[in-house]
Amino acid sequence: MSSVHTTACIAAAFLIQSVRGQDTYTTRQTLTVSEAPFESRLVTFLPNHQIQLGRGDATHVLALSDLISWGSYTDQHRQPYVYLRGGGVLTAEFIRINATQISLYSQVFAEVQIPHSLVRAIVFAPGANALARDRFRKQILSNNTNHDTAYFTNGDTLRGAYVAAANPSRANATGRIEFRTEQRLPSFSIPIERLSALTFRSQDARELHTEPKQRAPSQLSLGFADGSQLHVAVVTTDQTRIQLDVNEGLTLSAPATTFHRQLTQIRTHAPRVTFLSDLKPTSYKHIPFLRRSWTQGTDENVLGGRLRCAGTVHAKGIGMHSASRITYRLDQKFRWFQSEIAIDQAADNRGSVIFRVFLQRDGEWTSTYTSPILRGTNRPLAIKVAVAQADAIALLVEFADRGDECDYANWVNARLSN
After folding, report:
1. What are 249-252's contacts with CB under 8 Å, separation 24+?
2. Which residues form the domain of 40?
3. What is the pTM of this model?
């Protein structure tokens, strides 16, 4: 796995001055492998897989292997999204698209040129409704086909191929793209304002005219205030600029002050924790309140959207509906189970459930944790349960007020550790 490193350490005096002089170093919730959640500010990235955090007047160094996440990520709907192959999204104003690259203007990275070979999809009109936005995202990112697809704002779709403009200097000068289908030759132009999205064919089916950079495995996911979220292999920083080597082979750079002002989240791939959503459950059962049955969500809520609580989008967790139970084997491998529990914001401040944790030891199930009633108006509640010597764990979500109305329960960052 590639190192997250710096080419030069920032002098201590510079760091202290920056911390005091900018609101970019806002304290944010920090989740680590062993500690209870706490508030800290990011000071800087350091060599040897480390970051420096500030807590009060003190600073301390934290190994990235001990970090789960710092801060939070929230998407937005006001600018186009450019989804990158291999994961990640860059939110930016669309400038132009030509035969080899897409040009954008980002609040963080200024003008950016992204090779076609690294782009999976462009969403021109993300939509204001978060659940609809999530479902559309899931739809287009699962579109692994041998053709390009144009999605229109009226719901129509058109399969074919994006065609570069004959005059590259005028590409998209009038806000249009060229598109060709097998049924209609030659190509014709489509106003971008009529498109909600454009997805590109699978990479193995696309002819690449340039050899892409060697891809390094991502070490971090970084979230930004403009809605961008990038998977990063290497961070290089000095007193004036920060450079990111994105694992798709893309290099982005920003002034250090802009970068820290816009950065809202650091999320590691947490080598020291095991997320329940990465394990296969041994059983799942839902008991309908009336007739409707609900399946469990893996890294998404029960409605098929991303896990959203208190305005924050979470990458990992389990979505469940009352009344339901899900079980996993532990085989006495772990010491702790931790999670943040809440009602998904899709409930629109409604819903009410009780979260429960059961453990199996020597064939006997024992109730280990029972939450208070959590309602849609409550913020996420952090829990930590000792699971040493446990053979299995069961998570339950039970009815509380008003039957099962909007009981979209989330076990955010449900994880096991030692």
Report:
1. 249/118, 249/212, 249/213, 249/214, 249/215, 250/84, 250/114, 250/115, 250/118, 252/108, 252/109, 252/112
2. 12-73+223-268
3. 0.86
